[in-house]
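== Sequence entry ==
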Amino acid sequence: MILLNFFSVPFIISELGPSSYGIFVLAISIAAPMGLLDFGMTDATVKYLSESLGKDDRAGAARYAASGMFFNIAVGIVGTGLVVAIAPFLVRSVFDIPLIDHDEAIGAMRLSAILWMAAQIRQTPTGVMTAFKRFDLLNVGSSLMQAVILLCGLAALWSGGGLTGFVGAQAGASVAATGVWIALSMKVSGGISLIPAFERASLRQTTTFGFWQMLNMLGSILSQQSLRWLLGILLNVTSIGFYNVCQQLVNTLYMIAYRIGQVLFPEVSALVGKGEGKKAAEIVVHATWLVSVAAGAMFVPVAIFAQDLLRLWVGGEISNVAAETLRIMCIGSFIGCLFAAPSFYLLGTERGRWLAGMSMMNGAIVVVASALLVPPLGLSGAAIAYAGGTLVHAVILIAMWRTVFRAWIPGRSYFSAAFGGLFLSTILGGAGSLARNAWMGPSSWGELTLWGGAAAAVTAFCILSIGHFLPGGSDRTRSVLSLVRSIRSTKSVEASE
C-alpha cells in the first residue's frame, strides 16, 4: 500500500494538474474538523473494550461496541450535512480558488464528506479489532481496503472522470469497505454485535474520557489541517498540493512508528486494569527507544536525499520548491515519533487531558507561527511552523518523567531512551547532508535506493551500537527483544484460534 500511494501521486498530479490537485487536498482536509463531533469516542471505545475483555466481561464489551457504533453513525451524518451546507461559502468566499474551478471544488468537498463519513463509521469495527489485538488482520485489512479505495479513484481518473470522479469513486468504495469491516469484526469478536444501540451509561463513560481526546483532536486539526487552509488563503491552492506531497511522505513514515504505539495501547490498558502500572511504564519507555531507531533509519535518508527523492518522484518543478520543506518536516516528524508510545500510555492510564493540553499548544504554535512565517517564507515557513509545534512533544516527555515515571525509571535511562536516537540521528543527518552536497547525487531510482538503504543501515547500526552503551542501554535491548517476541507470540496464538 505504501508503494501504491507513493507511485500514484505523480499520476494524480499529472492527470489533475497542480491546481486541481491542491483543490483535492483542500477538499479532503475540510471534512477533518467534523471529527471533533466524535468527542474522542473511538479511543475511548478501544480502552473500555480492552478493560472489559481483560476482566472477561463480554457483556460490558458488547455495550461499549454498540454505543460506539451508534455515536459514530450519528457523527458521520451530522458532519457530512455540515460540509455539504458550507462548501459553497468556503469555495467562493474563503479560499483563493480560480472562478473556473468553483463548481468542481464544491462537488469535491461534498463527495469528500461522504468519504470521511464512511471512515468515521469504520472506527468502531476497527476499534473492536484493536481491542481483540488482531493486528494481523487489522494491518492487512487496512492496507487492502486503502488499496482498493485508491485504485477505484485512479480508475475513475484514468477514464477521464476528473476531480469529482476521482473523489466520488473513492467515496463509493469506502462505503462498501465499511460494510466489510463490520462483518469481519463481528466474526473476530465471536459475535459481539455492532448494531447501533443507545446505552446511556456506556456513552456517558466513554464521552467523559473522550472529551479530552476531542480537545486532542482539535489541536491535531489545528497543527495538520490549518496549514493547508492558511496556504490556501495566504498563497494559493497549488502551494497546498506541493506541501501535501511532503506531508504525505513524512506522514507515511510516521504511521510506522504510530503502529508500534498502537500495538501497546490495549496491552497498557490491560496491565493498568491488573494494577501493573510499573510494568506498563517500562514497556512504553523501552518501546520509545525502538521507535527512535526506526525513525532514524527512515528520516535520516529522506532528509539527506530530499532533493533527489522529490526530483525522481514528482519532478524537478516540485523538488526545487519543496526540498527544503521536506527536510524541515523530517525533523518535526521525528520528534513526533518519539511520542507515539508515550501517547498511548497516557490514554491507557486515563490521562487524556495531558494529550489535550499538548495538542492544543501544538496547534496554537503552528497556527500563529504559520500565519507569521508563510507570507515571507512560503512553504519553508509552513514547514518551520510544523516542526516548531512538535517541540511540545519533547516538553511533555520531560514532564511525564517528572510526574509519572520518576518513581520507577532513573532519569538517565529515561532521557537516553527518549532523546538519544534523536540526537544521534541529527548528527548523522547533518554529516550525510554535507557529504551529499559534495557530489551530484543519485540520478536514478536504483542509485537512490542503494544510497538511501546504505544511509538507513548506517543510521540504525550507529543508534543501536552507541545506544547500547548509553544509560540503561543493555536493559533496553533485552526488553525490546522480549517485546517483539511477545507481539509475535500473541499474533501466532490468535491466528491459530
